Amino acid sequence: MSLLDLKGKTENIAIEVEGKIAILTMNRPKALNALNHATLAEMQQIMAEIAADESIWGVIITGEGRSFIAGADVSEFVEHNALSARDLSGFGQETMNAIENLEKPVIAAVNGFALGGGNELAMACDIRIASTKAKFGQPEVNLGVMPFFGGTQRLARLCGYGVAKRLVFTAEMIDAEEALRIGLVEKVVEPEALMDEAKAMMNLILTKTPRAVRYAKVAINKGAGMSLADGLEFEKNINAILFASQDKVEGVDAFLNKRTPDYKNI
Predict the structure, then answer these.
(1) Which residues of 232-259 are buried (b: 16+ CB within 10 A; e: fewer)?
(2) What's the CATH class of domain 210-256?
(3) In the chain, which residues have pLDDT < 50?
(4) Among this protein's residues, is 16 annotated catalytic?
């Protein structure tokens, strides 16, 4: 099945395809694109389709209107008890894991509020580019709960434990420049340049060996949970596989003969 088979069939996420790039727009603007259960389910379905669709080499996720994702849908919290909340947390974590573990590059183009689950989804992406109007935060303690779609874990790994504790404990909302300073985002641009910058970066990535980018993502993600020695061993072994690939033959030949490589594999 092609990803385009889902186009127009998802209620909360708009799907566009430009060349080899899937552009996913969170599309609940009246709710500031809050993540309800249905939206999480749609994202899991879309990630599965993208993983299987060899015509899609990269993904950009953004938001409709003035919000990227304003958080989880708090209106759904009322019905949950301890057991069902644990299931909700697990479902949200599965969604973020599907983005993080997709063996294709994913860029978050953060156009506005990225709060709670929105910040957690952005952190599950590989690269975050923020509009100067973007705002980030984990405000869950204001509601008597804590980040539960992976925020306590990814924020500490991205920005350090002290920064994670500060943002989670205080529920402080920070602007794009502060997010850049602490390493939460990789680049800040003016709002009108956001999607152009995200597409330009993705198109640059897609000029590289797709299999090498894919394996590099796996090595970085898996290595983060290993000791340095185990991570180096994993890197060595996975790179050996690349040296046996046709992509390596094409890349090296193109370099030596001063031509543009023609990569066909994903």
Answers:
(1) eeebeeeeeebeeeebbebbeeeeeeee
(2) mainly alpha
(3) none
(4) no
